[in-house]
């Protein structure tokens, strides 16, 4: 069993969720054939023609290559909070990985997004980096175990829903605060910490790395380089202001330019802005990116660090209407960030993904 080091106050992960979480499970390869044999009984998902012989990451690649749209899931952190787990900083959504109940909630959210039609699962690893755990007076070993647990929960949800067409994206956020670009540490720290998390996500068995909510070009480039060095495909998503510049003030065009040669699967923008505000960023991304472009805005009208993403002041239908517009403009990927729910994803699916 992989457990957190118990400090007396930390519940050990002796949960039902964790009973099959052996070291062997945690380190098995990301190859979907090995997943089938280790998780077992994973009948083919019906209705994923013409992709039935492809691995999850190849389904994702192929959809993008063919110019098909891809439905990402919505946010996780705010839902975790709503379901009774205190998501306080610095761990925020990673708090859920510290208890039996929390782990069950996270897996349940993954299942709900899959049931709503999401074609990707994003792991609950936005805050499982070593820096966040150390700030919370926990250890690097605990951060490692939490990362492996988060990936395991995503894989279990996919397996339970028999959705072998779904690629699992290992979420990687900024090593510091997502809305505070001035806090981004030096290059050497960035390189070391991103490499560590990318290595853990690979060990857990993600299909790709979803680099998200990145507020400086410098960190985007290093996160992309470390994902690539880990041998994993990746997406890069920037957090921007209403003008479409990164929160650092750097133009999104320069950001695209900086990561292009590293060959991301897609370049996206996410978080911070509500669906009315994110259009300017999308327009600028679409104008310069030769790669598929994605967008997942906040469901709430205010930044998630102030509201915890809890303000659902945009209805799911309203959000889905915006997503339809993003797709019409040329976005390849749509989904949701803080404050969105499985209902938001279901509504996007009903509106834009029905054959
Ligand atoms: Zn967000």
Salient structural properties:
355 residues; alpha/beta; TIM Barrel; eight-stranded parallel β-sheet; 14 helices; 8 strands; disordered N terminus; binds zinc ion
CATH architecture annotation name = Alpha-Beta Barrel
Strand order of the largest sheet: 1-8-7-6-5-4-3-2
> How many helix segments?
14
Shape: globular
Terminal-residue CA separation: 44 Å
- Beta percentage is 5-15%
Chain oligomer state: single chain
> How are helices and strands ordered from N to C?
HHHEHHEHHEHEHEHEHEHHEH
Percent helix, as a range, is: 40-55%
Give a quick account of the main beta sheet: strands, pairing sense, barrel closure.
8 strands, parallel
Query: Please, how many domains?
Result: 1
Segments where pLDDT lies below 50 for 5+ residues? 1-47
**What value does the Rg take, in angstroms?**
18 Å
Instruction: Give me the CATH fold name.
Output: TIM Barrel
Structural write-up:
This protein has one domain: TIM Barrel (Alpha-Beta Barrel). Helices cover 43% and strands 10% of the residues. The chain has helices at 23-27, 32-39, 56-65, 77-82, 100-116, 130-135, 140-160, 187-204, 217-229, 252-260, 279-288, 304-307, 316-329, 342-352, and strands at residues 70-71, 120-122, 167-172, 208-214, 234-238, 266-270, 293-297, 333-336. With 355 residues, the chain is of the alpha/beta class. Strands 1-8-7-6-5-4-3-2 form an eight-stranded parallel beta sheet. Helix 8 (187-204) packs across helix 9 and helix 9 packs parallel to helix 10. Residues 1-47 have low confidence and may be disordered. It binds zinc ion. Zinc ion is lined by residues 75, 271, 298, 304, 337-338.
